[in-house]
Amino acid sequence: MGTVTNGEILRVSVRMKGPNAQDIVNVFHFQAIFADSQDDEDVVAIINTWLNVSYGSIHDRLPSVMSPYDYKVDVVAWSAYKLHIVRNIGTFLWTLTAPPNGTGDYMPAGVAALLKFTTGAGKHYGRKFIGPLLEADITAGSLTAGAISTLSALATLWLDQADISVGNVLQPGIVHNLSGTFLPFLDAVVNAVAAYQRRRKPNVGS
Q1: Would you call 99 helix, strand, or coil by DSSP?
Q2: Which of 9, 95, 102 is nearest to 51 (CA)?
Q3: SS3 assignment, position 49
Q4: For residue 15, what are the domain limits?
Q5: Which of 34, 45, 47 is nearest to 5 (CA)?
């Protein structure tokens, strides 16, 4: 492995398996704000902790038929209006200390909660989906107050930087799709109305 340097952008693709073995993916971007370059192992370790704490906070809202699978970490850079992989740090098995254990019936696989993260740059915001949702967390197409409260706490965790050591942090955000500028997340909101996220079945589609 190598090192991550100050200012580099990381893309972390996090994958769970749904009740029908479909991929359920969220993608996170971080900018390295480092006083000193950091070993890949230390960067991956803090990403794992950040994911473990955040997803663990909603483990009882996720159906027990879901299972964490892996996460892929890449160093990326903006070129020709697109993010390109500069270096693949690795793909790692994902084991949650508190895995999904929600009980009861669940909604169709694509029904999800939508969390939006503002950046202060007009219509540029981050989106993260959580699902499938338990039927008990949906009433007339909207999330219950309890579900919104839990997901709001999750959003707060996803606003927090990941601290490797003093002066060496990973700042979550997105990359501006025109300028390539990194935009840190500023605030978050949970949509009260349930959303829909396409789920990919293995070996189907591109």
Answers
A1: coil
A2: 95
A3: helix
A4: 3-196
A5: 34
Total structural domains within the chain: 1
Token pair for 52? 């473990």
pTM for the model stands at 0.93
Nearest-10 Cα torsion for 94, 91, 5, 10? -80
Beta bridge partners of 16: 24, 68
Is 149 within the bounds of a domain?
yes
Place of tokens 């591109």: 206
Token pair for 27: 């993608």
Tokens of 157: 């965790």
Per-residue pLDDT tens for 4-33?
Answer: 999 999 999 999 998 888 899 999 999 999
Note whether residue 37 is domain-resident: yes
Q: Assess if residue 204 is contained within a domain.
A: no
* CA–CA separation, 108 and 135 (whole Å): 9
Cα–Cα–Cα angle for 24, 28, 34, nearest 5°? 155
In-domain check, residue 205? no
